[in-house]
Amino acid sequence: MWLIVFIKTKKKNLLFKMNSQQRCILFRKKILYLSQRVSALHIGGSFSCTEILDTIFFKLLKKKDIDNFILSKGHCSVLHYVILNHLEIVSDKQLNSYSKSHSKFGVHPEVSNKGINASTGSLGHGLAIAAGFAMAKKSKDIYVVLSDGELQEGSTWEAVIAIKALKLNNLVIIIDNNNYQSLEKTSVSHPYLYPIEKKFIEFGWDSKSCNGHDVNVMSNLVKKRNKKKPFCLVAKTVKGFPISFMKNQPIWHYRSPNKQELEKALKELNSK
Amino acid sequence: MRNSFSDYLFKEADRDPNIYIIVADISPAGSMEKFRKKHPKRFINVGVAEQSMIGIAAGLALKGKKVFVYTIATFALYRPFEMIRDNLCYQNLPVTVVGMGAGTIYNNLGGTHMTQEDVSIARSVPNLKIISPSDPLELASSVRYCARFSKSPIYLRIGKSGEKNFTNLTSEKWRFGKIRNILKGRKICIISHGILIKISFKILDKLKEKNISPSIYSCHTMKPFDNDGFKKICTKYDLIVSIEDHSEIGGLGSLIREKAFINKFNGKVLNYSLKDKFINDYGSQDKLLSLHGISEYNIIKDIKKILSF
After folding, report:
1. CA A201 to chain centre
2. Which domain holds residue B124?
3. CB A149 within 8 A of CB A183
4. Which of A84, A170, A204, A245 lies 20 to 30 A from A264 at CA?
5. What's the pTM?
């Protein structure tokens, strides 16, 4: 109900004039509203990569090129759908149907939905599919967002080596390095993966790391990358950001807030 | 068959610039050299990286390309299975997964290189079609179908080398999804898929000595199964004999038993499939097949018992 009121009262012209900070607050609020109607939501990982997707959709990609993007960490599709709704590709009605019976808009993205370019969800698949995109569309930049947990999948590293060998220099990875996976800290379970950017550089990629909640820094690093190599940006993020009680708490990988938690989270976002 | 596959695909790629092939370090014996030289941008070797092979194929197909992926059957289907399921089948993309040297063809390399359960596994995945051509001629029709008409993922299960043609004996055209009559006869229907059609013809020669003329069929499309075609077979024959280089679970033998029951078939059924066991024999493929009970001798012996001759 809250969501319907919220969406109905939105002023579209105003929405498109928002800056990235305002947009990211809005996206998180929409996810919080949606969370009240579903039993399972990956809120922590969606909040950690909000600025990453905002950078890609509003600083790097033109609207006509949004088919050059894959969300490999598909469990955060709710954020992708919220952004597609903001871009008026997904309707309010469709967004409101999220995770409901008879809806095509579920926890993981479905390629049959407009604006979704690959059905991801099982980790370690998106990068190779993005490589296929990069091969088919060599004049376009292809963006793919990976979770840091996905770097434990062998298929990810197969693709990393193949992408370099096949000279797919139009491919850009942004890793949502929130350092948490379902069970524990990624840096605790796999300490030798770090520093991530060095691994990519060793495999012949260009790679940088930065604050993953700073839209301008991320977009500048991607724009100034060495275009003679594939590029990986390690975006250091905080899971559950910026909600105080969600930050770096593994339970918020999957949990939906109750009413009190929702009020508290909204209050915190409103004070930003 | 691998040389025929290369030749036919080369021809299709010549006429359609959207056709790509991705290989996973298949050896030069796979003879894709002609394709590679003429269309280097559409020949991709990902190396020993079968998961990437399927993922990249999916990415290309999502952008409108027709893609073939090609390697030894076990590495084509089993290693990247989740990618085939999620990337190709769930998204229903027109990618042909070519499994070369399927079944027990690589018996001399041992159990790790055999695919005795591939049809069974592939059959259970929604959207995935299966073609198992009986000879190089049927392979030509299969490749043409995959390249020009298919809009879904296909598992194309092929032999390796030295296979003879048998299907030139019929004027009936190869049609996707249709059981094909290769030789007309009476009372006995011998049906197979893949390279073991050669055993059907060996049996034919023996039975002819006894003045018995069986019909021979090729069930080249294993999914979707030709229910109508099989229904007709059920009305025509007293004995149906199935032969395949595949497990007794989930292959042609299973299908025939299931469909014969559904169609209330009054006659007898004999199935010759691989046993549900890992059996190794590093000698000839024929020797290994006979250890599974698949041999001309065994089949004739069983037919003799039924027909009492």
Report:
1. 23
2. 2-158
3. no
4. A84
5. 0.94
